[in-house]
Structure formats: structure tokens, C-alpha cells
Amino acid sequence: MGFALSTSSIFGLVDLWLTSQLEILQADKVTYKNVEAFLTHPLSGLTQKMRDKILTALLDENKVEIDHKRLLRQSGLFEVFYKKIENPQFVVTNLLDVLDFVLTRLSNAKTLKKIDAELFVKTIQELNRLHDTFSNHISKEEIPFVIYLVQKSLQAIAVPLSGDPLNGIQVMGLLETRNLNFDKVVILGFNEGIIPKSSIGNSFIPDSIRRVYGLPVLENLDAISSYMVYRLMQRAKNINFVYNSLTDESTSGEASRILKQLEYESGFNFTYNELNLEVKTEQFKEVKIEKTGNDFIQEKLKRYLNKTKALSPSALTQYISNPIDFFFNYIAEIKEPKEISAVVEANEIGSILHKVMEYFYEDLRKAEITEERIREKKKLVPQLIQKAFNAVMFKHPDLVMEYKGMQKVILAIVDAYVNIILNQDISQTPFTIISLEQKIEAEVSFPLNGKEESIKIFGYIDRVDVKDGVTKIIDYKTGSDKLAFKDVDELFNSDGKHINKALIQTLLYTYAYEQFAGKTCVEPNLYIVKTMNDPIYGGIWFKSNRQVLRGEFLEEIKPLFLARLKEKLTELFGAPYFKASEIPDNYKYSIYKTLFGK
To answer: Of the candidates 136, 242, 461, 501, which lies 20 to 30 Å from 217 by C-alpha distance?
Structure first.
């Protein structure tokens, strides 16, 4: 009975040190996850400012593993904590150095708690015992094996919960109560299998052998437990037994047999009280964010109206899909915290693909693109993919590195996507590229409160081509976007099931480019790499009821699209509140679902 070291922050630091040492021994690197755990650990002694500074730098670099030498260059606890173990005999001594450094700092700062002090003493005593026991016998053992021995040994440490023996509550194990008298006794966990225990513990000695040689058997434990309970109650004036009546994998929900025996034999009056916690579920309340009279929201919206801030197509499509998401993201500016992960997210694959295509065509701009030129440059695709991967993931295009595991898979996926796009481009040759990743801006006017207002929209167009005199907007997509759409009205229906974000985005690009470049009859094309080669759902043109969105049909759609866009902007800036869409699929992947109660 006592406070277990395994539940303390001290053991957390020790366990983190042992884990980090295993990583250093294996690859001379430490994972970001463990470095972050060290930086944020309460015993590391780092100020909040220093923690934020280091974590921000590591997040910007987006490295899953940090070089060991880089960590050693830091002063203070870093140098002691990340010192590499050179010999199995140094495992315990190096760990003692870490604990001594932390203990000295806490003592000097006068922030050492009593329970922590006792845990430190007990841990250091155990480590010294281990060192004296096997320091001369482990020189030929592997360091990881010694680390596991230390870890296993420290997990069993516990210190007694000591207090004033004459005042307050005394927290004890059953064996600690021997020959002590108390006026009031509360026994917790008075379940069958706990008091008395249902097993004798881990042993390879069978019960029959135990009985022959007079070793302790289960009946002995039952007798000891019964004696301790009866002795504890001998002079008590008030006795309470607490047991759990719920059945789970660790308990049967039965009260201890000792309680049943007492009730049957003693003649005492037993009062049973049950604790039942009523579980209530709150009724769903629709969350609406009021705009009118809210100065904060109005000031944020005015930034768009006075054109100090431009509206992006992704922001507009987010508002159309689920208006309340727009509030949390662009008005309240609640962002998802950045994390470093070994897994490349889907949006990062798209960014890598965009970068590769930009690198591929940057030398071919303003020249006629032919099949021969594409096939000749395809030889450079593997190099361009690596360059793009380094640029997106590590902000360093020319980084030289060895790709591992999942990184190789991502490179292969992007390579397949690039070849699908290039094969489509070959089928469209000859054509001319006007621009790559071009930023365009345009204004959209709309009625608001009886007068004309306008906002600025901006975006980055992946590619602008010219073929047979027709200017084409090319947008790459690696997700599950669709080319089919029902009609223009459904595109802007926040409570509808037929919102096509890709079409809204490409038509916005088309409108903005026509305003920006002074051109007409610009055609939107969508390269959905996952389905581009599909004979039924593939292609590059949007379709409505089997009618392809190009030529005359496209020119008929454009004014309808602009009219509905203006109506949606009037709603965005003039509606009394932000609310959630009535269609759950429209916010299926929203990070704000818990905020608006869905």
C-alpha cells in the first residue's frame, strides 16, 4: 500500500529518458513526439517562452525525427538528459545524473513537494541497489536489455502515505492496520476477489506441492484477510464497507464473503445504501451565432467590405457548405493546432502534386507544348517529385535525404498521379501554357441593405492553357470531387445535398480570370486524378444532365452562377446569424462539430 512511483511525474521523466535512449542507440535520433513530451514535462524546468520557441521552430521544420547532436548542443538538462549511453554499466549512473540534476534544481527553487522528495529518495535507493547488484556482471549484456531491467524494477516502487497518526484520516493497506484501534473504519473495495484475494499470485509451484511442503496456500490468505478485518472492527464504533456492485472484467460485483458471514453470525444491524448516478442526455439545441449587434463580428465582416481582406474560393465554399464553419474559421479564427506526423495528410499530397506540375511546366511556358516535349521531360519526374516533397514537407526543395517507409509510398502515389495528368495533357497536345500558379484578384458587387457593396476575391490558378483559341482554367484535384452537378441553384443551397465545391471554385477562378485578363469564353477544366481515366465518370469537363459545361451551355451558366453568387454574398453579410447546415454530410469532416453541438 502506498503511492506508486509509476503514477508520478518522476517515473514519467525516467520512462521518457529510457525510451529516448533506446531511440538514440538505434538511429542517433529522437522522435518529435518524445522531444515534445520532454519539453512539456513539468520537471524539465523550461519556461513557457522557451518551450513555445523550441516547439515553434520544430513545427516549422516539420521533422518527425530530431538529430541527437542537435539536442546535445543545448545547455542545462538537455545536455544531461540526452547524453548517450556508451556502456551497459553506465545506464544506472547516467540515470542517476539526470535525477540528481532535477532534484538539485527543485531543491534550490524550493518547489520540491514532500511526496516527490520521498519518491526521489526511494528511486535513487533502488537505482543504487541495482548498480551494486549487477554493475560487475552486465558488461557483456546489450544496453537495451539493461534498460528494460531498470524500467521493470522501478515500476514496482511505492512510498507509504504518511501523516499525523493521531489526527485526520489514516490511509492504510489491510496489513498496516495490525493491532491498531480506530473509532471509525471505512473499508474500500470490499468485493469478493479483493478481500480476500482470489489468487495466490504468480507462481510456478502447483497447489499440491505447496500443501506437501507446507507452503502458503489460498486458504492461508483467506484466513489472514478475515483476521485483519475482524481485528480492525474489534473496537470500532462506526464501520462502513464500500463495494462495487457493477460487473466487469475485473470484478463479479459480489460483496466479500466476510460481509455475508458477519451479517449472518454477528446479529449487528446492517444498513445498505446504494449510490446510483442518473445519466441524463441534453436535448439538442441549435447553435446560432448572432451577427446583429455583435461589434466583434461586424468588424470582422467589414474587413471584407472595405477590401482590407479578400475572400478566397475555399472560404466561400466553406460558408456555402456550412455557414457556422465559416464563422469559427474566418471570423473567430479558431484554427486547428499544427502537428508533426509521420503520416502525410491528403491535402499535403495535393500540395506536392501541384508543386511537381509547376516544376514540370515552368520551363515550357509561352512555348507550344507537344507530345515530344512532354515525353522528353517525363524522365525528370522522379527528381521533381523528390524536390516537391522536400519543399512541401520540409520547406527545403534541395534537401538531400534518404526516404523511408511511408515516404516512399507517397512518392509512388504522386508519381502515378503525375503520369495520369501528363497522359491527359498528351491527348490535348498541342497547346500553350499562359501561366502557372498565378494569383488573380477580382471584385464582385452585390446588394446589401439597399445599397451596392463589393468585395475582393482572390485565388491561385493551377494552370491556364490556350488550345485552338480557347483559354482554359486547369485545376488539379486529388480528392473525391465530382464532375457532375444538378443545377446552379443547388450549388449554393447550404441545406442541400448537391453542393459541388470544385465547380464553385473553378467557376470563381473563371470569373476572376476573365475580369483580371479582360477575356471572355474562358473554360473551366477539372483534373480529378483518381477518376480521370474512368470511362463513365472520367473526363475533365463538368456535366449537368449529360450536358457538358463548355461552349454555349457554359456561357448560359455563367450569368446564373454570378447571380446566385451575389445572393449568397448578400446572405453572408446581411443575414442575422450564422447557423449549421441541416445536412450532416455537409460538415462530416468539420473540426468544429463539437462547438456547434452536432
So the answer is: 242
